[in-house]
Amino acid sequence: MQLEKPTNTPTPFRIITFNIRYDCAPSAREPHELPFSDRLPLILQTLYFHTLTTPTFVCLQEALHHQLVAVRDGLKELHQTTSWRHLGTGREDGKEEGEFNPILYREDQWRLVEYEQKWLSPTPEKPSFGWNAACKRVFVRGLFAAESGRRVTVVNTHFDHVSEKAREKEAGMMLQVLEKARDGNSDVVVLTGDLNSRVDQKAYQLLSGNGSLVKDARRLARVRIGNEITFTGFERKKEDRERIDYVFIGGKGNWEARSYLVASNGWDEGGLMSDHRPVIVDVQINGN
Predict the structure, then answer these.
(1) Which CATH architecture has domain 11-285?
(2) Of 101, 172, 84, 185, which Cα lies nearest the Cα of 143?
(3) 285: three-class secondary structure by DSSP
(4) Are 148 and 9 a contacting pair, CB within 8 Å?
(5) DSSP of 29-83, one letter per residue?
(6) pLDDT digits 0-9 by tens, 95-115
(7) pLDDT value, residue 216
(8) Domain segments of the chain as ranges
(9) What local confidence, expressed as pLDDT, does residue 288 receive?
(10) Which pLDDT does position 253 carry in this prediction?
(11) Which residues form the Endonuclease/exonuclease/phosphatase domain (predicted)?
(12) Distance from C-alpha of 79 to C-alpha of 265, rounded to nearest angstrom
């Protein structure tokens, strides 16, 4: 991809964050949960539709290695291009074991400038648990350059589902990562993920408060459509539904959040492709 110095040409891009639900053993499935092999076609159709027209970063949570490969290679086949790549490794061993928080992108649309994955713990350089968390947790960060020369930092994560203390510490760690990205050469900084935190809870409030350089895209977007709730469960019980999946945006460039969508996770026949809904945000970096 030919890169230029930053131009005044608008640079639109799309962010998708989607917890696709890990491919668990049949004995561990929730009531009404379909096997991943049945859910995959709708996941691919949804991602293909929403990546057709705009350069897109697809940020997943709970993807095991074979699920990540199936999604990445499925997008290659549907788009008829081999340019789909991903960042991130398994959280258990830093290789292929455990869940991934990958960032998928097309290398014919973005050049990767920097990449890192670290664990959300006091020992971030190695696979580790942090602050009484039930699971090892990671973040993946990529700095990308568009053909226009504009640069975007994308950070994808998944906070702990049990320990509130862990979520608060994880949010504080993300603030440090975002501040470092802002001080670098990024026009826009994006944080995505399943935070397991409602808007009235501490982790969300830390990331969206006055001390944070990013803001909730739902509040920033000119247009909001679709649902508000992002976690539905497979039984769709009203009392289980929560908004816990987010896109946060900030940065020193001249940009705008143009639209925000929480898309459907089901189809008429009654099956769900995940217990979460995908969150889709359109951003544009404007000329100076």
Answers:
(1) 4-Layer Sandwich (3.60)
(2) 185
(3) strand
(4) yes
(5) PPTTPPPHHHHHHHHHHHHHHHTSSS-EEEEEESB-HHHHHHHHHHHHHHHT-S-
(6) 999 999 999 999 999 999 999
(7) 98
(8) 11-285
(9) 67
(10) 82
(11) 17-276
(12) 21
